[in-house]
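Example for reference:
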Amino acid sequence: MNNLFQRLMPFLFLGIMLVVLVAGLILLSYLLIWGAIVGLVLFLIAWIREKFFPTRQLTKSDKKRTSNRIIDHEDK
Protein backbone atom coordinates (compact mmCIF):
# COMPACT_ATOMS: atom_id res chain seq x y z
CA MET A 1 0.00 0.00 0.00
CA ASN A 2 2.84 2.37 0.86
CA ASN A 3 4.55 1.60 -2.46
CA LEU A 4 1.33 2.42 -4.39
CA PHE A 5 0.99 5.73 -2.52
CA GLN A 6 4.61 6.65 -3.35
CA ARG A 7 3.99 5.93 -7.03
CA LEU A 8 0.78 8.00 -7.13
CA MET A 9 2.19 10.95 -5.18
CA PRO A 10 3.72 12.79 -8.21
CA PHE A 11 0.46 12.47 -10.14
CA LEU A 12 -1.58 13.76 -7.21
CA PHE A 13 0.81 16.69 -6.81
CA LEU A 14 0.60 17.41 -10.55
CA GLY A 15 -3.20 17.30 -10.43
CA ILE A 16 -3.36 19.67 -7.45
CA MET A 17 -0.97 22.08 -9.16
CA LEU A 18 -3.06 21.96 -12.34
CA VAL A 19 -6.21 22.82 -10.38
CA VAL A 20 -4.41 25.71 -8.65
CA LEU A 21 -3.12 26.98 -12.02
CA VAL A 22 -6.57 26.89 -13.63
CA ALA A 23 -8.17 28.58 -10.61
CA GLY A 24 -5.46 31.28 -10.69
CA LEU A 25 -6.04 31.93 -14.39
CA ILE A 26 -9.79 32.23 -13.81
CA LEU A 27 -9.19 34.67 -10.95
CA LEU A 28 -6.77 36.70 -13.08
CA SER A 29 -9.26 36.89 -15.93
CA TYR A 30 -11.97 38.16 -13.56
CA LEU A 31 -9.59 40.81 -12.24
CA LEU A 32 -8.71 41.91 -15.77
CA ILE A 33 -12.36 42.08 -16.81
CA TRP A 34 -13.37 44.12 -13.74
CA GLY A 35 -10.33 46.36 -14.19
CA ALA A 36 -11.30 47.02 -17.80
CA ILE A 37 -14.89 47.80 -16.80
CA VAL A 38 -13.84 50.20 -14.04
CA GLY A 39 -11.28 51.86 -16.32
CA LEU A 40 -13.88 52.29 -19.08
CA VAL A 41 -16.38 53.84 -16.66
CA LEU A 42 -13.76 56.26 -15.32
CA PHE A 43 -12.70 57.16 -18.85
CA LEU A 44 -16.31 57.82 -19.90
CA ILE A 45 -16.92 60.00 -16.84
CA ALA A 46 -13.78 62.04 -17.58
CA TRP A 47 -14.66 62.31 -21.27
CA ILE A 48 -18.23 63.46 -20.59
CA ARG A 49 -17.01 65.93 -17.98
CA GLU A 50 -14.48 67.38 -20.42
CA LYS A 51 -17.09 67.49 -23.19
CA PHE A 52 -19.71 69.42 -21.20
CA PHE A 53 -17.41 71.35 -18.82
CA PRO A 54 -14.18 72.04 -20.73
CA THR A 55 -11.17 73.24 -18.83
CA ARG A 56 -10.38 76.90 -19.30
CA GLN A 57 -7.52 77.49 -21.70
CA LEU A 58 -5.09 80.27 -20.84
CA THR A 59 -5.00 83.12 -23.34
CA LYS A 60 -1.98 85.33 -23.98
CA SER A 61 -3.28 88.00 -21.62
CA ASP A 62 -3.73 85.40 -18.86
CA LYS A 63 -0.19 84.17 -19.39
CA LYS A 64 1.18 87.71 -19.10
CA ARG A 65 -0.66 88.26 -15.83
CA THR A 66 0.79 85.20 -14.14
CA SER A 67 4.39 85.68 -13.16
CA ASN A 68 6.31 82.47 -12.70
CA ARG A 69 9.14 84.08 -10.74
CA ILE A 70 10.01 82.91 -7.27
CA ILE A 71 12.04 85.29 -5.18
CA ASP A 72 13.71 83.72 -2.18
CA HIS A 73 14.99 85.92 0.60
CA GLU A 74 15.57 85.73 4.31
CA ASP A 75 13.78 88.14 6.61
CA LYS A 76 16.03 89.46 9.38
Observations:
- The CA atoms of residues 44 and 50 lie 10 Å apart.
- The mean pLDDT is 87.
- The first helix runs from residue 2 to 52.
